[in-house]
Design goal:
The chain has 217 residues and is an alpha/beta fold. The protein has one domain: P-loop containing nucleotide triphosphate hydrolases (Rossmann fold). The protein has seven helices and ten strands. It has helices at 40-47, 70-80, 96-106, 111-124, 140-152, 170-187, 198-202, and strands spanning 2-11, 14-24, 29-33, 55-60, 63-64, 81-84, 158-162, 190-194, 206-211, 214-216. The strands form two sheets. Strands 6-7-8-3-9-10 form a six-stranded mixed β-sheet. A hairpin with a 2-residue loop joins strand 4 and strand 5. The longest helix is centred in the C-terminal third of the chain and has 18 residues, at 170-187. It is globular and about 50 Å long.
Length: 217
């Protein structure tokens, strides 16, 4: 589903990626760990098409990203990528259901379909009765589960998670990781997570370390 071939990226004299290769199957969750400054966030940005590699390719479902066309990349992200962030990024003036439905609104889906799919997504993460609430009334773990529902509501091929348990205590983190694992399997998405947490990394199907610009078990 997701394939990286020979990704290289430098910033000035700092060479963060030196020919990184990776394959992630549909429904597989891969964790990337490494020291601070090793290039984990850079790798995630390249996979998302938010940054341009110096060399190499990113392929999703066999098609290589065209890093020369920013508009095409933005549309590709909107259709095919879901994001889960450390800071949740739920809009406080929208209900939980409206937050979850945002990717569908951006893709032009009708209101009825948006509402039905948002409700189904919330139910899949154990928040079926939370749709009319505001994000401020949720716990950190509940907000992150809502963020997972939002990331997957448009049925993306690729889920990218950046420190998804970084703002949570151990109990809430465990619940979110359970939810993330189940959601990835159900959606048959390729999931790539960068994390400093060995506990979070251990929940993934595979753990790779980014060191010296390359990925290795």
């Amino acid at each position: 589903m997701l394939r990286l071939r020979g990704l290289e990226k430098s910033f000035g004299a700092a060479r963060l990626l030196a020919g990184a290769d990776l394959e992630v199957a549909a429904g597989e969750w891969v964790a990337i760990v490494g020291e601070s400054g090793s290039g984990k966030s850079t790798l995630l940005n390249l996979v998302a098409g938010l940054d341009r590699p110096d060399a190499g390719e990113v392929l999703l479902e066999g098609r290589a990203l065209d890093f020369r066309d920013d508009d095409a990349l933005a549309l590709w992200r909107r259709k095919h990528v879901g994001f889960v962030f450390q800071a949740f990024h739920l809009l406080p003036y929208l209900t939980v259901a409206e937050n979850v439905a945002l990717p569908l609104a951006l893709l032009g889906h009708a209101k009825g379909e948006r509402e039905a799919r948002a409700l189904a997504a919330l139910e899949s993460v154990g928040l079926a009765t939370f749709g009319e609430r505001r994000p401020a009334t949720l716990s950190g773990g509940e907000m992150q589960r809502a963020a997972i529902a939002r990331a997957l509501v448009h049925r993306p091929s690729l889920l990218l998670a950046d420190e998804p348990t970084g703002n949570l205590d151990a109990a809430n983190a465990a619940g979110v990781l359970d939810c993330l694992a189940a959601a990835v399997k159900e959606a048959r998405a390729s999931a790539l997570m960068v994390t400093h947490s060995p506990v979070a990394a251990a929940r993934a199907d595979r753990v790779l370390r980014l060191s010296g610009g390359r990925l290795a078990p």
